[in-house]
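Please, is this right?
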Amino acid sequence: MAQRMNPDLVRERSRASFDIEKLTHVLFGGPDGVRRRRELESLALTDPDYTHEDLNFLSREQQYVACLRESLLAVQKSKELGLTGLDRQEYIQFLVDHAPGAVNLHLTMFSITLRQQCDEQQKAKWLKLADDFSILGSYLQTEMGHGSFLRGLETTATYDPNTQEFVLHSPTVTSTKWWPGGLGLTVTHGVVMAQLYTQGVCRGPHMFIVQLRSLENHKPLPGITTGDIGPKYGANPGDNGFVRFDHVRIPRDNMLRRFAQVAEDGTYSMVLDPRLTYGTMVQMRVWLSTLSSVFLAKAVTIATRYSCVRHQSELTPGEPEPQILEYQTQQHKLFPVLAAAYAFWFACQNVETHYEEVDSRLQQGDSSSLGELHALSAGLKAVTTAGSHSGIDQCRLACGGHGYSHAGGLVYLLTQQAVVVTGEGENTVMLLQVARYLMKCYIKSQAGAKLPSTVVYLQTVQSAPAASTTTRDLGNLDVLTEAYQHRAASLVQAAAEGMKLKVSEGQSEAEAWNNCSVLLVKCAEAHTQFFVVKAFVETVRRPDMDSSVRAVLTSLCQLYALHGICEHAGDFLQDGFLTGPDLQTARSQMCTLLSSVRCDAVPLVDAFDFHDKVLKSVLGRYDGRVYEHLYEWARKSPLNKSEVHESYYKYLQPFLKENRAKL
């Protein structure tokens, strides 16, 4: 095997300063987690029944069929293997790679919603059907005219006490449900978010389970018009769809009723705190943040390996062409992205743990921590999805011309990540939700009230210390954490005081909010970035961590924090918390860290443990044999099936003959 490896990558791996396997254990929850993950991966990737077809050379319809075939086969195989829960989901993801088809939406939004929003009687019916894959479902919230603003949804569900049915209707073209994955051609059922009307009163958005297609011939049921919305920027194997309802009747029992119910006579009642319905959204936002960190890790794996295989130009005249990763500019492009991949990964693990703790309390009806978790998940979703999207594109650009080819896998990752940026909440809306929570917490802090752990720092908002003639120790993780905390606190304070000033000048609360919204978004970003830095530091300081792993992660943590300071220098300098000399020190230390990380760059991306069949990149191959496989990949293009394409005889030959005849 070693003889078939690119010698550059062999050399890179031989000089690792840490045990790669031990870092992989940190990333995936310990040796047992890694072992189980690899068992599932092996089951999925070595099974000869899967074709692993390259979608790049298929039409959109062929892509849909190929993904559907692989997805359904994966479900069937997981049943035969006796896989359930997270094992089943991870096994399927190794094969369909988060493709936006029916199985993904079924396993995530559809099943999560049923699990969290159904009462026990409904779970016994619907969740069993979903878990057995006797039905396939999607989540139908977004409409052509409305997305994040739930109160603006136009689809109606009007209760008819005479028949004890809800009548679902799409009253306008903008009320058409638009975008749900799997809706176009695949799913049989959907959880529909609609405005509930009963006894002449609108009770706001509620969820209903609706059968969309016949279980006999798959045709849309009467009153239902559905289809595919057409090609998109990416995720084209998926059949994102539309649906319109024309007075479609469903039984009263089809309203998901764990939190609210409609009696036979139409009487409406709340059963539990309505805020508990946020659970599905929170879980999906945490999942999307985690998915973003994985996509970013894949991209930086590809770009880093390729940058060690690619040789270009001269560093020293007359010397052999160096690896492009030897250039500091290439390191500056990639290593902050590498640091961000680790930072996002650990922040998501932190929030997942927090979610599990809050969810266990939610199941007992305790929603006291839900506001904090909602703000945390919304902020993390915004920061990680946007940061991963820009980071993936940075990796693509760092690979030059080959990064533009689908062979590299980076274009695919970029378009997949673009879906995540917008899905389940537009990021500006997410950050404004965080800001609203922060404003409430700031007001409470001024009144001396106790605050949740993630915002307790607002109780100690104070002026920056006087500028010192000595620079701060910006290699100290406590100093870096303090800098991010101070930045977040000062920006929250500035936004709150800005709001207060505008109201005192006669603006309404709504006007003041809109006129301060840029600053509000900024403080929400700063709050979330502080959380990410803090989570990274906490991970580095875990007592059970191997010392060599801690050392390399400390360098990445410092790099992530210092790069953020350099990118947002104005925020840190504005009130004198950091000075001009501090910023010069930050830039100098960041460049020093680039050289330090360079020695471990390939081992650091190897620790993510992506199999080549999962990475799907000629440029990022583990063996580094890029060029021969790039050539082989190009030869597979359908345009190369014959030496002379048929279009020559139909168009090109007569065109050239006619022009030559005129000579």
The chain is about 55% helix and 10% strand.
